[in-house]
């Protein structure tokens, strides 16, 4: 059994969006809102106050980080703590706020919004010229997304649907097609799928919100190969980091939790699942 260890005892309200970049793990507390940076080599922990709820952080090839927030996209520089807005077309209204997002292997940013209880959110692709393309509509809570270059596949989660979907993915056209459901959580287990990442064997690691766990899913069979149990109900996202990308970092949330019962809710955890993941792709914006 894979054991998860406590890394940072912090009561983040809605920890999300972890990425590994240059020896550090970057992750968000969406509601606070804050950007957290953990550097295990020197056991350094930093937190930066943000001005809007922020669902996504990715490194930018031109320097700094892209943040996807309530009103649009911006660049944030942790060295100066300066935030610079980026273009967003006026004919693309943002529903509630941006949520989970990642860059595809070509550096294009894919980021979704949330519609909460209504299927009114979308998944967008933003190219280096800031051209915005609506890739999916009718979404409720746009969440986990990742790509398998070897198989030409894109994986995606709309959390309330309770499933993981796959699409055929054309990297040259940045197009997705032939949507199909490939997996659900094991029958009888609580929670909904949230954030997701992929390992070098093509397996999907899926955090389960209100499920106290992360499942390793075989996308070919839809079966869970491994289950990592955590001491908190709301596991939100995961990402491989460390020198060899062999540490799986897991974010959690404390929102609407009884912290007397779950004192570690909102903390950051890590485990070593015996497999490696991929580096994060820099954003071309």
Q: Low-confidence segments, ≥5 residues, pLDDT <50?
A: none
Number of strands: 24
Strand order of the largest sheet: 1-24-23-22
Radius of gyration, rounded?
Answer: 17 Å
Question: Explain this structure to me?
Answer:
The chain is an all-beta fold and 285 residues long. It has no helices and 24 strands. The protein has strands at 5-8, 15-21, 24-29, 34-39, 44-49, 54-59, 65-69, 73-77, 82-85, 98-103, 109-113, 121-126, 132-139, 142-148, 153-158, 163-170, 175-184, 192-198, 204-209, 213-217, 224-229, 235-241, 247-252, 268-271. The strands form six sheets. It has a four-stranded antiparallel β-sheet, with no helix packed on it. It has a four-stranded antiparallel β-sheet with strand order 2-3-4-5, with no helix packed on it. The relative contact order is 0.18.
Write the topology of this structure.
Layout: E1 5-8, E2 15-21, E3 24-29, E4 34-39, E5 44-49, E6 54-59, E7 65-69, E8 73-77, E9 82-85, E10 98-103, E11 109-113, E12 121-126, E13 132-139, E14 142-148, E15 153-158, E16 163-170, E17 175-184, E18 192-198, E19 204-209, E20 213-217, E21 224-229, E22 235-241, E23 247-252, E24 268-271
